[in-house]
């Protein structure tokens, strides 16, 4: 019982950390840009900018002026460093050499440790991210009726994207992705969960590291205002997700079959009640 008393709390702690980080990531990528928005130029702590014809402040720099403005370049460099730290951690710990080393020293907690380190790296990105309110924007919905309808449309698309993400994670076995299932199987003496999976599932897991690429891209790019720091976040994560994405037709057929099986299992109690 001694190993179980140590393994189970460690796996649960990693799971709670990852779950909380996921909730915070939803707020960081969706709620803040859609509901809170970026800091307004000319607001507290910002110099009053020149007035546009509509009478609103507009202290944002142009693209050419931005590349010479240290107040824009410095926070962008800081944000880039945070993103590279996250990408580096996420990629390095996913290599076979590092996974083998972690399995040797941490055993069944290898996946939980990877998940915990990823959550901590993402926490660093979110907590120390530097907005660039005076930077140029790629697009911005300011005039009516776009200022009303575009944020609403973006909100709906974000909600749909997150619902799809959560559904896909369930199809992919969320407990196993978070490292909980590995510890559970180990404590009960059932072996490695992957050893019980079909060859199609093993093939899918061997080359697909990010099952929610399309939905995350929707979240990253579909915003009412695409400012400089958000553009940096979207570009770098899009490049990273694109390089790590490896779905093909065989994988899609397997995922479709898995989804149908899980929907059938969910509908069985209802069928029993109807009878």
Automatic annotation (TrEMBL):
Its main location: nucleus. It is a multi-pass membrane protein. It comes from the Eukaryota. The chain crosses the membrane at residues 72-92, 113-129, 149-172. Keywords: Membrane, Signal, Transmembrane, Transmembrane helix. Residues 1-18 form the signal peptide. It is found in: Nucleus inner membrane. Residues 38-58 are annotated as: Disordered. GO terms for cellular component: nuclear inner membrane. PANTHER family: NURIM (PTHR31040:SF1). Belongs to the nurim family. This is Nurim.
């Amino acid at each position: 019982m001694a190993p179980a008393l140590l393994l189970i709390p460690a796996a649960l702690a990693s799971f709670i950390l990852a779950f909380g980080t996921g909730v915070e990531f939803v707020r960081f990528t969706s709620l803040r840009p859609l509901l809170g928005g970026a800091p307004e130029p000319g607001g507290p702590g910002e110099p009053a900018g020149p007035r546009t014809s509509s009478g609103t402040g507009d202290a944002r720099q142009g693209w050419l002026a931005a590349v010479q403005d240290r107040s824009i370049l410095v926070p962008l460099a800081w944000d880039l460093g945070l993103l590279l730290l996250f990408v580096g951690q996420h990629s390095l710990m996913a290599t076979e050499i590092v996974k083998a080393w972690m399995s040797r020293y941490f055993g069944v907690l290898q996946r939980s440790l990877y998940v915990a380190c990823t959550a901590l790296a993402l926490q660093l990105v979110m907590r120390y991210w530097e907005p660039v309110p005076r930077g140029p924007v790629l697009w911005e919905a300011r005039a009516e009726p776009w200022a009303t309808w575009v944020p609403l449309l973006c909100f709906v698309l974000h909600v749909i994207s997150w619902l799809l993400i959560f559904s896909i994670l369930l199809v992919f076995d969320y407990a196993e992705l978070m490292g909980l299932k590995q510890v559970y199987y180990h404590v009960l003496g059932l072996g490695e969960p992957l050893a019980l999976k079909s060859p199609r599932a093993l093939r899918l897991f061997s080359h697909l590291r990010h099952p929610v690429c399309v939905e995350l891209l929707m979240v990253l790019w579909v915003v009412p205002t695409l400012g400089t720091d958000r553009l940096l976040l979207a570009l770098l994560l899009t490049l990273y997700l694109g390089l790590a994405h490896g779905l093909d037709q065989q994988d899609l057929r397997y995922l479709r079959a898995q989804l149908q099986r899980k929907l059938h299992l969910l509908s069985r109690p209802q069928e029993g009640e109807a009878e």
